[in-house]
Structures are given as C-alpha cells and as structure tokens.
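Hi all, posting the design record for the shared folder.

TITLE: backbone redesign
STEP: 1 of 1
STRUCTURE INPUT:
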C-alpha cells in the first residue's frame, strides 16, 4: 500500500491547509524537525511535526490518535477552518482518497476514476478491511509514536494480547471459547435428554406395573350378566307379546260377536220401532176417525133433536111433511146414529187393542233398547280392552326393540380393558422407541461433546503452536536487529503463555535478555537507559517485520517519532544507520521525527521543518547537503 499524500486543515496546530506530498519523496531516509516561533524556549517541540506525521495520519485512518484523542480534542484551537484530513493512497493499483471531517463527523472514501472524485460514506470496519491493518497493528508497524507504549514496555498480559491481536491469533481462543460454549450447550442438552430418559424410564415402569387382567375378567363377567339379563327380558317380553296377541284375538273375536249381537239388536229394535210406529199411526188415524165420528154423532143428535118437537114442518126444507115422513126421517137418522155409535164402539175396541199392542211393542222396543245400551257398554269396554292391548303390544314391541338393540350393542361392545391393554402395550412400545432414540441421541451428543471438548483444548494448542512459530520468527528478527543496533553478542529470549496442569492458561508474554557479561537471561525491565532503548528499538523493528510478513501488507512509509530518547551519540548514529539501510533494503520512505538536531549524522536524504508561528503550523522543505 502506497501513501501518496496527506492534506491537513483545522487539525490541532494546523489552521490553513498543509500538504505532505509523500509521492514526491524517493526511497530514502528523512529527518523531520520543528521550530516553535510562538514559544521559542520550547525549541523544536510543539511545532506540529508529530501532529502532522503521527496524529493526523493515525486519525484519518482510525478516528483517533496514538494517545487516543478523538473528536473535539483534535480540532484547531482557533476554530477558523473546518477540521478535515485527507489521505491519498494506492491499494491494488487503485488510487483512493480518504477524507475524515469533524463537526460534522464524516468518514468518506473515493476511488479516483479519470479526473473525477466521488466520495461515499464508509464505516470504520469497511476502511479497516480495505487497509488490512487495525489500530494496534498500524501503531506497531507503520508509525512509532513517542506517546504510545513500546511493545517491550508493556506488562506480560497486554503484551500477549497485542501480539495475538496483531497476528489475529485471538481467533483460536474465540474458537476455543465457542467450543466451550458448545460443550456447555451440549451438556445442557445431555442433561435435558437424560431428564427425558429418566422420565421415559419412570413412565415405562408405571406402564409395566399396569395389569388389566382382573379388570378384563370383571368386565366380561359383568357383560355376561348384562347379556343374560337382556336375553331374559327379551324372552319375557316375547311371552307377554304372545299373551297379548292371544288376548287381542279373544277380544277381537268377542268384539265381532258383540258387534253382530249389536247389529241384531239394532235390527230387532228397528223392527219393534217400525211396529210401534205403524200402530201409533193406526191409533192416530183411528183417533182421528173417532173424533170425526163423534162429531157426526153429535151432529146426528142435533138433527134428531130438531125432529123431536116437529109435527108437520120439515126443519130442513121448511115444507110441510107428514108424520110418517118425519118418523121415517127420524128413524133414518137414528139408524145412522146407531150405525155411527156401533162404529164408535167398534173403534174404541180396536183402539184399545191397538193401544195395548202399542204398549207391548214399546215395551219390547224398550227392552231391546236396554239390551242395545248394554251391548254398547260391553262394546266400549271391549274396544277399550282392545286399545289397551294394542298400546301394551306397542310398548312391548318398543321395549323388545330397545332390549334387542341393547343386546346387540352389548354383544358387539369390546372390552375397553383390552384396548387399554393394547394402548398400554403401544405406549410401552413408543416409550421404548423413544428411549432408544434418546439413547442414540445421547450417544451422539456424548461423542459430539467429546469432540467439542477436545477442541476446547485443541484450539488453544493450535494457538500455542502458531504463537510459538510467530515467537520464534519474532525472536530471530529481534536478535538480528540487536546486532545492527550495536548490541553485539546480546540475545533476547521470548516466552509466552503455557497451559498449566489443571488445564488453565498462564497468561503472559515475557522478554528475557541475555547480555554477554551476564550468566543468565534477565527480564527486560532490569535494563534501563540506552541499553533498554536499543532493546526497545530492536523489539520494534522485529515486530514491524513480523506484522508486515504475517499480514502481507507492505506500506511504502515508516514514521519514527522521537526514537533517540536515552540514546548516546553512538546509539543515535547506529539507529540512523539502521533506518537508512532499512529504507534502501525495503524500498521505503522512512521519516525520523526528533526535537534534537540529528541531521549532522549525514544519513538523511532531506530535512523537513515544521514551523509554528502566529498563524499556525506550516511546513518548510529543506535539502541537506
């Protein structure tokens, strides 16, 4: 990855836009210093050299400075210009421009196509993926800040964490933790399955203890009694139906006899009624005749009475008549009267006879009526008995149908305890199948647990193996740089975390230093001053090379901020020589930032001076002759 250009505006001590054209620098070694005109007593300090080369470059790439400053803490104090840092770089033969702004906060990226530049918003994760380096890796491979702890100065555990993070070795611990969590999940599933197995065993035991033999016998006995009772009831009803049928026949026969008797009685009654009616008509006629005759008799008496005092004059014609004629007329009238009276007597005899006959016939009719009434009563009684017998027959037939249906139901009814027994056997079979499946699942889970549990330790061992490999490479590179920095016959031994007997990991990354004049290696912390600084530098060189090698990312620049601290003149010269050779060997542009004037050592291609005055910091380019 090539860093081409850095543009700074409104950032820390920079108000107006300043540009560091990295693409104009050829491969070599460059000295960066400063001049503080605002506070001359500070010399080269506070001029903005670290702010530009270290803080601005780190902030635009990662959103924070090596000392973890963010947001408003990096804005120019005057606040006249908007805080913007742009970085032009090339990755995989594609030119990019990265822009980070403050107030409002923006992170934008553009790939240059022809002459146009179109910015789009990006996330920090997307940017890290494009660059290929995270914050820590960037700090330990591209820039060496005076404000960030040197790798060897860190405590053992942070040292190991950064080493693992830089080399992406933490993924193996993540995998181990993931495997451990999987083991916990599997243990939970095993516990759940074992609980289910225990539950199934309990159910199996409960079902095995169930015995329906007595219930089956008792049900069969009860069912047999019900069937026998139904059959007896049916037989009894059938007997009642036979009796009913016989009684019904007798009643019907009797009913026919009574009906015939009634018909005869009706005929007899009708006969006597007719006779009575005839006689009564005769009596009526006779009475009418008698009444008419009585009228004639009275009339005859009146006529005779008219002739009693008559002597010679006819009372009818008023003519004179003889006595003989009168006697003849009277005799004639008397004869007629006698005839009428004789006829009247005869009618009285006939009437008396007719009345007597009518009385007898009426008595006979009344007798027949009484007999008919009794017959009707008997008929009504027989009809009631017939209807009652029919009702009883219907009830018997209904009862018989119900009993037969019940018998049919009872006969075909299955013993429920047989079904319960079958159901019990079916449940037992299902439970045994479930137990078999659960046992198989438990076997698989135990095998899976054993495998996952193996990798809980296995991933750690893989990590330890990779750490050991990287550590061996790191150790070689550190020791090579020790010789270049003038620590001849010195060596560094690196020790990393190891697994204890209990299975835990002893955290830590130890640096032991073996000097020519010491009998054994001692911790790095025992060394101070110039020796300690050379050891730090050797560690920094080694870590830079290891990161570049492992990440496969080769930046075209390196920036070293105040690395000469605690070094003597010989130490500074040795460092300058190493950095010069490193720039040429690795085809890099290496920038050394220092407040001391180290340009006199003659290893630098050029000198860059940051000047701070009342309008802010700006850059002055100066060649070294």
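Okay, here is what came back for every position:
SEQUENCE:
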């Amino acid at each position: 990855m090539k860093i081409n250009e850095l543009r700074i505006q409104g950032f820390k001590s920079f108000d107006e836009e300043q540009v560091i054209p990295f693409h104009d620098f050829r491969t070599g070694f460059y000295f960066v210093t400063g001049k503080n005109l605002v506070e001359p007593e500070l010399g080269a300090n506070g001029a903005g050299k670290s702010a530009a080369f270290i803080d601005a470059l780190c902030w635009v790439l990662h959103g924070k400075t090596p000392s973890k400053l963010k947001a408003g803490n990096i804005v120019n104090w005057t606040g006249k210009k908007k805080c913007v840092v742009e970085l032009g770089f090339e990755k995989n033969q594609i030119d990019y421009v990265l822009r980070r702004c403050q107030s409002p906060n923006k992170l934008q990226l553009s790939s240059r196509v022809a002459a146009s530049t179109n910015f789009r918003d990006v996330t920090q994760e997307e940017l890290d993926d494009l660059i290929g380096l995270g914050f820590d890796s960037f700090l330990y491979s591209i820039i060496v800040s005076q404000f960030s702890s040197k790798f060897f100065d860190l405590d053992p555990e942070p040292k190991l964490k950064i080493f693992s993070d830089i080399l992406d070795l933490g993924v193996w611990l993540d995998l181990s933790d993931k495997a451990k969590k999987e083991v916990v999940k599997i243990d939970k599933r095993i516990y759940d399955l074992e609980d289910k197995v225990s539950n199934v065993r309990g159910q199996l035991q409960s079902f095995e203890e169930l015995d329906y033999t007595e219930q089956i016998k008792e049900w069969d006995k009860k069912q047999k009694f019900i069937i026998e009772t139904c059959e007896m009831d049916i037989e009894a009803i059938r007997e009642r139906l036979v009796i009913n049928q016989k009684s019904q026949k007798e009643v019907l026969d009797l009913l026919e006899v009574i009906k015939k008797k009634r018909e005869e009685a009706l005929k007899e009654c009708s006969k006597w009624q007719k006779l009575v009616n005839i006689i009564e008509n005769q009596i009526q006629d006779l009475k009418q005749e008698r009444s008419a005759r009585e009228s004639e008799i009275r009339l005859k008496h009146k006529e005779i009475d008219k002739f009693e005092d008559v002597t010679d004059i006819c009372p009818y014609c008023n003519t004179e008549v003889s006595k003989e004629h009168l006697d003849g007329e009277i005799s004639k009238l008397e004869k007629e009267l006698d005839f009428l009276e004789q006829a009247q007597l005869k009618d009285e005899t006939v009437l008396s006879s007719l009345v007597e006959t009518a009385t007898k016939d009426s008595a006979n009719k009344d007798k027949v009526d009484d007999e008919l009434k009794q017959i009707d009563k008997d008929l009504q009684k027989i009809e009631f008995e017939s209807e009652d017998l029919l009702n009883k027959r219907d009830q018997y037939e209904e009862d018989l149908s119900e009993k037969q249906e019940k018998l049919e139901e009872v006969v075909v009814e299955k013993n429920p305890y047989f079904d319960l027994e079958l159901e019990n056997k079916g449940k037992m079979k299902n439970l045994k199948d479930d137990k078999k499946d659960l046992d198989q699942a438990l076997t698989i889970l135990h095998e899976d647990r054993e495998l996952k549990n193996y990798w809980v330790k296995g991933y750690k061992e893989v990590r330890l193996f990779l750490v050991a490999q990287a550590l061996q490479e790191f150790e070689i590179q550190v020791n090579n740089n020790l010789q270049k920095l003038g620590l001849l016959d010195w060596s560094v031994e690196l020790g990393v975390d190891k697994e204890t007997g209990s299975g835990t990991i002893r955290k830590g990354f130890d640096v032991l230093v073996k000097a020519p004049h010491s009998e054994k290696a001692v911790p790095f912390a025992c060394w101070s001053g110039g020796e300690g600084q050379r050891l730090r530098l050797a560690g920094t060189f080694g870590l830079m090379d290891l990161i570049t090698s492992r990440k496969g990312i080769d930046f075209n620049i390196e920036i070293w901020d105040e690395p000469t601290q605690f070094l003597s003149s010989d130490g500074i010269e040795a460092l300058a020589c190493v950095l010069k050779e490193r720039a040429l060997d690795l085809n890099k542009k290496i920038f050394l930032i220092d407040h001391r004037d180290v340009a006199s050592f003659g290893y630098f291609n050029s000198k860059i001076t940051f000047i701070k005055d009342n309008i802010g910091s700006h850059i002055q380019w100066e060649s070294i002759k």
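COMMENT: The chain is about 60% helix and 15% strand.
Let me know if anyone wants the other runs.
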